[in-house]
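Entry type: protein chain
Record version: 2
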Amino acid sequence: MSQIQIVPMDERHLPALAEIERACFHAPWSENALREELGKGLFLVAEDENQTVCGYVGCQTVLDEGYITNVAVSHDFRRQGIGRLLIQTLTERAQQAQLAFVTLEVRASNDPAIALYTAAGYEPVGRRKNFYRAPTEDAILMTLQLRDAT
């Protein structure tokens, strides 16, 4: 694997992130939607030594809560541990930001993603019926508790 570094999302990343979104998701975020997240929450980008964007994770924050919006790795960089590195780095940043928990939805049939999140300590806490479209499918709600609820 090439040398990967995780950096905060920046304006220069937006075209590549929008391209990854289009390749990975049925309802992709546009470049403008990504731009609106600049400087908010925890949006992290994986790039190689040539500053080629390999993937990203987006996490919106509300008070001490984290909501992962997207995790995406370019098809050219899959199966290299980049998703794991993104989730690991996000978890470290969420702890530094003193978030109480981070949560996400994942397609019920997405076994590789569920395995990734489970290995990172996320636990299934619920199910959202018919959450996804094309095809219609349930979402598994998974949460990582970072500190005890008070």
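Comment: DSSP finds four helices and seven strands in the chain.
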